[in-house]
Amino acid sequence: MSRILIIEDNLDIRENIAELLELGGYQTYQAENGKLGAMMALEHLPDLILCDIMMPELDGYGVLHVLSKHKETLHIPFIFLTAKAEKIDIRKGMTLGADDYITKPFEETDLLLAIENRLKKSSGAQTAVSSSSFEDLFVHKIVKSYAAKQLIFTEGDTPRYIYFLQSGKVKIVKMNKDSKEVVLELCGAGDFFGYWGVLEDQNHAESAEVIEDCTVWQIPLEDFKHLLATNNEVSGKFIKLLSKNLLIKESKILELAYESVRKRVANSLIALSDTYADESGFSMKVPRELIASMAGTSVETAIRMLSEFKNDGYIDVKSSEIKLLQYDKLKNAPF
Questions:
Q1: Cβ contact 307:271 at 8 Å
Q2: What is the pLDDT of residue 27?
Q3: How far apart are CA 183 and CA 293, in angstroms?
Q4: Model confidence over 230-286: pLDDT tens digits?
Q5: Residue in 316, 152, 112, 135 with CA at minimum distance from that of residue 234
Q6: Domain spanning 134-245, CATH architecture
Q7: What is the overall mean pLDDT for the chain?
Q8: Residue 271 CB-half CA count within 13 A
Q9: What is the reported pLDDT for 97?
Q10: Burial environment of residue 250 by CB neighbours within 10 A (0 to 12, 13 to 18, 19 or more)
Q11: Could you tell me where the beta strands, DSSP code E, fall in the chain?
Q12: Which terminus of the chain has a smaller tally of CB atoms within 10 A, N or C?
């Protein structure tokens, strides 16, 4: 009997879906918010996940991101079930790794067929690497440890490796014409980075700096190119990463052009949470310089915005540690 996790904050919808699926011969688990849903997914390891997008505690995008960081849940089929039907929302969900997208209201047969098809595809995909772990694929990798603030590579370096972040936190940065640092990307455990120079056949156009002590795999270029051509797991993960990266860069350009500084600082906190939150939520020591460079503002302004967010109850701040208390309210606040 296949097991399905339903993450939906509307009680009536959640129970109706559960009843339908149980009549269809499925075992179900139910979670009323994203945070609980992520915890239940890691505990029960269901065969498929149905997840709403707009939810308290942690939204559907956050749930998908958290689960993509765990090898146990990385390949579980994930279907967004939501009233949001805008193309940009669908695109965001799919580029983050969702397998399907069903809008409410929906026909019961459409939902059952989507689940059946995804379960069949998931079952058929358990092939190539079943006898070897993801780590074993990169037999010639060099494993290196870096301390906070160390540079892994710098702008202008000739690419020699593709990098895979086994643990820790890394930021991809570039200096603008005013010699100010701009954060282009945040990397967490399980992310590849340092690949644009390889794809474009030119030197690195950015630098990689460690935020928190990390362990990095340096993967020789020829090994990586071979795996892209022969291994579905690696190529699939890399394609999703490229799509996600392009979407982030597109959003960043629009944000810097049109959003207020208050909104940009709020978005920086949301981006940090989306990248580094775990099943218990987001709490980490965040250098104020990092928030400033992500938001395109001064450190003093970033500190002032954080103080205002604390007073508004969106976050809690203790020394350098920031804890996100109201993810949805901060993300959707009309600053």
A1: no
A2: 95
A3: 6
A4: 777 677 767 766 766 666 666 666 666 678 999 999 999 999 998 898 878 899 999
A5: 135
A6: Sandwich (2.60)
A7: 85
A8: 26
A9: 73
A10: exposed
A11: 3-7, 27-31, 48-51, 78-82, 100-103, 142-146, 151-153, 161-175, 181-187, 192-193, 207-220, 283-285, 315-318, 321-324
A12: N
Mean pLDDT across the stretch 3-26? 94
Q: What is the CATH number of domain 3-124?
A: 3.40.50.2300
> Quick one: three-class SS letters along 174-231?
EECCCCCEEEEEEECCCCEECCHHHHHCCCCCCEEEEEEEEEEEEEEHHHHHHHHHHC
DSSP output for 239-266: HHHHHHHHHHHHHHHHHHHHS-HHHHHH
| Close Cβ partners of 287 (under 8 Å, ≥ 6 residues apart) | 211, 320
pLDDT tens readout for residues 288-332: 999 999 998 999 999 999 999 999 999 999 988 999 999 889 988
What pLDDT score does 225 carry?
A: 80
Task: Quote the CA–CA distance of 234 and 240 in Å, as a whole number.
Answer: 10
3-state class (DSSP) for residue 2: coil
**Sequence spans of domains, the chain:** 3-124, 134-245, 259-332
For residue 312 the two structure tokens come to: 């508004």
- Which among 123, 108, 115 is positioned nearest to 4, based on CA atoms? 115
Q: What is the distance between the alpha carbons of residues 305 and 285, in angstroms, rounded to a whole number?
A: 17
Which tokens hold the place of 227?
Answer: 């795996």
> Residue 253: how many CA atoms within 13 Å on its side-chain side?
5
Nearest-angstrom CA–CA distance, 13 and 111: 13
Note the pLDDT of residue 198: 79
Percent share of the chain, pLDDT over 70: 85
Mean of pLDDT values over 76-94: 73
Fold of 259-332: Arc Repressor Mutant, subunit A (1.10.10)
Please, are residues 298 and 179 in contact by the beta-carbon 8 Å criterion?
no
